[in-house]
Amino acid sequence: MKLSGILGTGTGKLGSSVFSVSGGQQVVRQYQPQVSNPSTAAQVEQRSKLKLLSQLGAALQPAIAIRRQGLVSARNRFSSVNYQFTYTDNNIANIELGDIQLTDANFPLAGFSVTRSGTSIHFELEESQSETIDEIMVVALRRTSTESLAVAKQILVTEAGADGLFPTDFESPEGDVVILAYGMRFGDADAKAKYNNMVVGSASRLAQLISSNVVPQTAVGLTETRGLVLLKGENSAVTSGVFTSSIGVVIYNGGTGTADNAAGTVSGAGRYENGETVTLVATPATGYRFIGWRNSATGSNISTQTTYTFVAQNSQTIYAVFAENATVRVIIGAATESYGRNLTTTGAGEYNAGDEVTITATVPNGQDFDGWYGDQTATNRVSANSTYTFTMGSSNIAFYYKTTQDGGVL
Question: Which of 233, 304, 351, 362 is surrounded by the fewest CB atoms within 10 Å?
């Protein structure tokens, strides 16, 4: 425990209280040594998404233009703003790089295009959008690996070109490139002059400007496209900047009550336009069976078919529920009143749930087969045929045969 003066700030743990400093203010929280039920599917999904966003926030720190809000840091607000764009695919959090939102504004810049020629990239904003934009800054992010980003170029375009399209050219980073663009709208001349006095020349300087409130948000509307990804080898790409539905799937083991990749795989998770048809396909792993699709881990099935098709209307998480194949037994016996002399049967034994099972009874001369029954007193006949096929459930099951003497007289 450390204290700075009698009334100063403190950090550390004292009894059941934890002291920390956030944003220059003293914060005291209750110590919680244990978390109740820490591994529910929803918690695992949430932690996976927040971990991804935390890593992205660290990589994109120089380009983030989201302001601190009270005790909530800009990095945490970045995670909050982008959480809606994340989705879970085979229990791994994903976000389309072109969807990453670097501002907290609500005005998506509708569209721009980029073309690559040799080592140069040409950026151009659609004319319909440029009419309402005063300045634009382009940020190019180089994807160094499938899990890593690096800010490669930061360029501020201060005025529109002769055709009003905000064209600019810059050297292309190697490999996959993520292009993001900030658009600035100024509400009055005084705000623009104050902005220009800051001589902003990079994404980090712009982020500092906005977060420090040098230019009030009421005077400047800051926005950005959710970007586009220009893959290595591609020569052009276009974005509409329109948010689409993120469809995530959690692979859930109904037996253990946890998210479990070992139970199977699912295809179809990802980003879709609202109104677009989504098709999810579940494939159980060896030793598992598919139970159904659910809107929550413990809710009712919305479909029990391995292929589930629906129309995307908003972002959502769907649970693909699997369960291990437990070994269950088929038991065959004689009904109480069965004649049953020298009768032979097949089909008894151990099976996995979901297996197709056939039981048969071979009746010798002088006897008639009366049926298979679900009870030994022969009151619940399930089949009158000596051969009966069914799908094995998840628990043991017994069948009882009944025969009579030829002519129906015992």
Answer: 233
